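Dear support,

We are seeing what looks like truncated structure output for some complexes. This example has two components. We would appreciate it if you could run it in full and send us the complete token output so we can diff it against ours.
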Amino acid sequence: MSGSVALKQHLIDPEICIRCNTCEATCPIDAITHDDNNYVVDPGKCNACMDCVSPCPTGAIDNWFQVNAAFSLDEQFSWQELPPRPAEAAAEVDALDEEAAALIAGAHGHARARAPASASKPRINLFSRAQPALAKVTGNIRVTKSGTSSDVHHIILDFGAIPFPVLEGQSIGIVPPGTDANGRPHAMRLYSVCSARDGERPNTNNLALTVKRVAEPRADGTLFHGLASNYLCNLGLGDTVPVIGPFGATFLMPDDPDADILMICTGTGAAPFRGFTERRRRLAGHGRGRLHLFFGARTPEELPYFGPLQKVPPAVLARELVFSRIPGAPREYVQDRMRARAAELAPLLRRPATHIYVCGLKGLEAGADAALAEIAGPDWPALREAMRAEGRFHVETY
Amino acid sequence: MPDGMNVDYDGLIPNNVDLNADARVKKALETWHPGYIDWWKDMGPEGFQEALVYLRTAVSVDPKGWAKFDYVRMPEYKWGILLAPRVEGRLIGFGAHKGEPAWQDIPGEYRGMLRRLMVIQGDTEPASVEQQRHLGKTAPSLYDMRNLFQVNVEEGRHLWAMVYLLQKYMGRDGREEAEELLRRRSGDADSPRMLGAFNEQTPDWVSFFMFTFFTDRDGKMQLEALAQSGFDPLSRTCRFMLTEEAHHMFVGETGVQRIIERSCEAMRAAGIDDPTDTDRVRALGVIDLPTLQRKMNLHFSLTLDLFGSEVSTNAANAYNAGLKGRYREDKLEDDHRLIDSTYPVLRCKDGAIIRDESVPALSALNMRLRDDYVTDCQGGVNRWNKVIERAGIPFRLTLPHVAFNRRIGEFAAIEADPEGRVLDAGAWAANRDRWLPTADDNLYVTGLMKPVDAAGAYASWIAAPKVGIDNKPGHFEYVKLWS
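Here is the complete output from our reference environment:
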């Protein structure tokens, strides 16, 4: 490990560690060792596979410091406590993989995101480009009506015996096969998981994605075909897909069953909210919190999961499906419907357990924000920032 | 992917041992299951069976995905049978069979010995749940209550682990032993648990933390020794149990540490320089360090009795047979047969404590495990002392001498003080209250045991933890009592 390159160093907090040896016994590459004083991680060996993180009984293991020069083993052995934490490490780390981290930063925009206080602790970075998890396609169905221009697929990836723990709202990385014009591997794309943490059906080791086949007309009259989305939408049953990740440590749902969740989305931005909804549906009866969905599409035929959505019990989900291209009807957008529901939304925004999520195309954020500002009143910017700081306001756009 | 990584969650009993392929054992366990649930409801945490508890459930034996946190009602906890992945080509690491392939089935000649090892280990698991069943009502916080319940459900799972081995490999005898494990009761006059320390009461939270630090640590040592076993299913079972046992060590070590932190902080704030000024310290509503020392003396000495006689042919036989090794046997460098070597043992001769250098190492295995245990305890005590030192308070906690307050083994016949000086009966009686918790200590501690059930709040006598479970923030509601 070079001493001059910035790196995220894995460190064990000696004040919290109880020296139980679980991490050392778990590490598959013997990167963890100890002396009479401390358990430490060898920065030259640790490859951030995260195997040691989950079994640690104390949480002492889960420290990642951005450093310019790695702390040596001898330095770590001598510690009674961790050195002062670099300021940037105070927030959650979405990905240790630089490519994925950049993608998530782009989707979350400028603001520093925080996870909901009651969110489960996500596992990240378990599988890399070099060592992906190999999933098998066990389902690939179109979830928008055929004949419409919006070709959205629901794709189920099964991990067999490989543990691939995800939480609702997390993403996985997919790299289309082949190389680009320069002979280099293609860039990674992130896709939100649209299933619940315990699988498409409870206790199955799989996850699902919502993928829109990208086919956009260009100015020159040709049609641009998205590489990764077409690769995924064309997968056949039984095909093997290398999967990277999981990624994402902030756009997560609160575990608090009393929390209300306001979900605002268009198109495949619904993916994480399908996961949230499934999770809550399975827990039905456990809490007092409700989901509130504002979901926009051009027509019912182009709204993914239109059919299944109708079956979610209203006690779990209050749904507002909004359409902008119904023949003969005025164009209605998500923000219009939000304004129409201002009487219900205004008190919801004030509740301390309410969490807001916005997910969809880039333009959605501004529209939703303007509607929320109108509904909440002049203190909306302050309220929004307070909610953001508490992990109760989240945006993911692309 | 190694064999047995996948956990089957579809049936009644989650498992990674392919229970579906073994109709006999599956039926036996399904028959045992209702009795277990009855036992849990009768003898598990009293008054909290309906509460939603934020618990960790082991869902895989692969470290990438083995733990899942969620709100669970305890009787609905997924108690399963989870064995660490099988290591291909594993060899027996010690004893007369060293170098032979590890046994996948029970070696007939060692059946009786193995059954006894399993039953003794199995008996401790439900016993501690029974001992701790009233503690939920006086939890100093929801965080601590959750930790107690996590310990409890995992002890329940450890009972399942041993019962699986009994049912799978011990036939009718095993079935009967499995029933007996549910029938015995901690502290019961007619059918007590098998080991002394597991029939003692855990009357308050200080005792609970001491118990999880000292007595569960004996469990860890025993599991480490059994994890070396040449009987592969036992080894794999114990290896997985150890990852859970680490949580119990955590609860004990940090529990006592947080008591110390709070006491030191209160003493400093009140300007008390003398930590033995018990009346003034207690007036602050915190626990004085001398009382903690006496509690520690009690739990340490009671736990040492669990290691059995220092010189033991049973231990020698189990080692020689390849059934129970030494602590981290695989990391030790010697011949792993111990036929000709010796190990120094502290013994009692003519009323004096002497060091006997000539004990055959095979016979001294209990002593050796106990020595490793004392070293392990000392590490934790040193970390506690760092807290006191940092607060600038002139007091240090010390482990008493191994001869202090013993009822089993070499020192059962004598009385010794915490420094290991042999005393006559009069001197012991005159000083006992300096070294072991007094009626007054217990009364004071009991008086502090008032439940605190607001999220994020802690009783006066214990500090908040440095980090939450599953990285949860301070005000997280670890137990939802309303449901």
